[in-house]
Design brief:
Aminoglycoside 3'-phosphotransferase, Chain: A, domain 2; mainly alpha; two-stranded antiparallel ribbon; single chain
Length: about 190
């Protein structure tokens, strides 16, 4: 479906999506099967799939509650992290706090008993998981109706934010080489 929807996304959002976003989307299309194979090698965790503030609430104790689990799946651990940071955070806010948030995420994993997962591996997994935000942006941009003011604001923000994250992490240039040099686990 991605290959069929990419031209629709490009046509609808050519004035909104940056050249880097379009390049990343096209590059991803060329190597997405290898990306899926790489992701499928694991390790896995339960992911929400649409981890953004519209699907958050806080209970009476201040604990975060996620709802709208219709896109939950088994996926790589950084999928929700990358999606949240690339889609939900304004560009300058993400840039200013991205490293601290990655460190907090890593420290939380270690505090919960995860062992053998390095910060460099987390950064690589996070960068790779930006592909999930790209997929969602292309699918949403091609398939959903964004004709309302709120809808237009949403897709404009998604294009800007995801595009900036892809550009900041040099996703289009990095991904093909990463996939060629990363052996799949048996």
């Amino acid at each position: 479906m991605y290959h069929a929807l990419l031209p629709v996304f490009e046509q609808r959002w050519a004035a909104t999506a940056s050249a880097e976003t379009i390049l990343a989307a096209r590059t991803f299309a060329e190597c997405m099967q290898a990306w899926f194979n790489n992701i499928a090698a694991g390790p896995f965790t339960l992911t929400h799939g649409d981890c953004r503030p519209d699907n958050f609430a806080f209970d009476g104790n201040g604990d975060l509650v996620l709802f709208d689990w219709q896109t939950a799946r088994r996926c790589t651990n950084t999928r929700d992290l990358a999606f949240f940071m690339a889609v939900s955070l304004p560009v300058e806010l993400r840039r200013a706090h991205e490293e601290d948030l990655l460190r907090l995420y890593h420290d939380t994993l270690l505090g919960a008993g995860v062992r053998g997962y390095s910060m460099p591996q987390l950064r690589t997994d996070y960068r790779r998981s930006l592909g999930s935000a790209l997929i969602s942006g292309v699918f949403a941009g091609a398939m959903l109706d964004f004709s309302s003011d709120r809808g237009l604001q949403l897709i404009t923000a998604i294009c800007e934010r995801v595009g900036a994250a892809l550009e900041d992490h040099e996703f289009a240039a990095w991904l093909p080489g990463y996939l060629e040099t990363t052996p799949l686990e048996a």
